[in-house]
Amino acid sequence: MMQEPSDGDSAVPHRTAAVVLGAGKGERMNSRFPKVLHRIGNRPMVLYPLDAVRAAGAGTCVVVAGPDMAEVAAAVAPVPTTVQAEPRGTADAVKAARGRIGPDADTVLILYGDTPLVRPQTLEAMIARRREGSHAIVVLGFRPADPGGYGRLVRGGDGSLEAIVEATDASAEQRRVGLCNSGVMAVDGAVLFDLVDAVGSDNAKGEYYLTDIVGIARRRGRTCSVVEAAADELLGINSREELAAAERIFQRRMRRAAMAGGATLTDPGSVWFSYDTVLGRDVTVGPQVVFGPGVVVGDEVEIRGFCHIEGATLDRGATVGPFARLRPGADLQEGARVGNFVEVKNAVMKSGAKANHLAYVGDAEVGAGANIGAGTITCNYDGFRKARTVIGDGAFIGSNSALVAPVTIGERAIVGAGSTIDRDVEADALALTRAEHTAVPRAAEKIRRRKTAGGPESRGAKK
Ligand code: UD1
Ligand code: CA
Prior knowledge:
Blueprint: E1 16-21, E2 39-40, E3 43-44, H1 47-55, E4 58-65, H2 70-76, E5 81-83, H3 90-95, E6 107-112, H4 120-133, E7 137-142, E8 152-155, E9 161-165, H5 172-175, E10 180-188, H6 192-197, H7 213-219, E11 224-228, H8 240-260, E12 264-265, E13 278-279, E14 284-285, E15 290-291, E16 296-297, E17 302-303, E18 308-309, E19 313-314, E20 319-320, E21 325-326, E22 330-332, E23 337-349, E24 354-366, E25 371-372, E26 377-379, E27 389-391, E28 396-397, E29 402-404, E30 407-409, E31 414-415, E32 420-421, E33 430-431, H9 443-451, H10 455-462
Parallel strand pairs: 1-4, 1-6, 4-5, 7-11, 12-14, 13-16, 14-17, 15-18, 16-19, 17-20, 18-21, 19-22, 20-23, 21-23, 22-23, 23-24, 24-25, 24-27, 25-28, 26-29, 27-30, 28-31, 29-32, 31-33
Antiparallel strand pairs: 2-3, 6-10, 7-10, 8-9
The structure holds uridine-diphosphate-N-acetylglucosamine and calcium ion.
């Protein structure tokens, strides 16, 4: 969920600024799309660090993107984007933000767009540490299970930070250091750009490493410090596998929040949320339920197993599933019921309306208390354009009916089972379109006798 921008320190507003880096190619993702647009909880990952910096009080924020990344700019808008002409390393990326950060910023947070799980409280602790100790840089460290390719934090005897060494440039001994660089930094705004200007590219990758600013600041007599946070906040996403690992952590947080908010999840591990899913109190969610973006669920709603729900609103006491699909614009009012193998799209089910089995309700309005029989289809599309079906309060649509839109079924009207309705039906009328019923006495018996003439042996002989 998006957090409102905060003013930070109320006496001196916007003293914290933030830069989020997203210009890297993300080669290891093996994708046509910029890495930071890959999604966590159905939302581009770069939006999470932006939320976090704003919640931690950053005023000015800027995202650094590559030259062919209009999609990144569109995704982060209205947050402004600045372009790094070539991906020459993280220090070079920060230089692209020069002139975008006001002189009033005493602390500049730098986050990587591929590290989406960091929490605002952690950033607040870093800002506080930087201000209290007048440190040039506070780096957010963590101890991943596998330090692998992360930069290592080299500390002095007093625990203060001396340098960051990239894994590719580290000695065997340095690689044994378990404390790693998350990439998140809080830097003294007065010296940030002087420090990045001093970074060279004499290293294994020939890149300008932002991490070098720690050693540079130390050589200039400034102090640097480390704040540590949990590894599940700081996973950096470089591959599809790491994307899946971050999604798991994100889902675990969402499930916990849903339960803390008063929802029962019978099998939490199999319920998948989007970043903006809202569940009310005393909601029950069965196993294997997927929430796409834009779902708002009111109190006391029951969602049975195996439902797929996206862009839908479910008011108090509605019941859905098992095996229901609610697509964008599905609006279930109080106590409405949508049962198994029913698909609802861009349709209102007014209070107490029911579609309990095997139906498609699309581009429709279903009146209060109306009943949609099994196999009913609102034929909303004629191959050229979409049209609406309106069903009045208390109407009854018999099973296996086709309602050919645009069409209106009046209040309390009854549509007989198996009808194809392409004209409006007035209130309280019965509408029925059926072929004549024909029944020929004893005809079945005759057919059976003819088909079995000669008995089973003769049929076997024909083979
Ligand atoms: C970086 C850190 C490493 C740290 C790790 C944490 C450096 C040199 N290394 O390594 O110490 O442990 O993150 O996850 O900073 N980017 C640009 N422009 C560039 C290069 C990168 O904007 O020229 C952006 C990327 O889009 C990405 C972020 O910076 O969002 C980090 O880049 P990446 O190449 O993933 O760095 P790592 O090798 O993971
Ligand atoms: Ca990375």
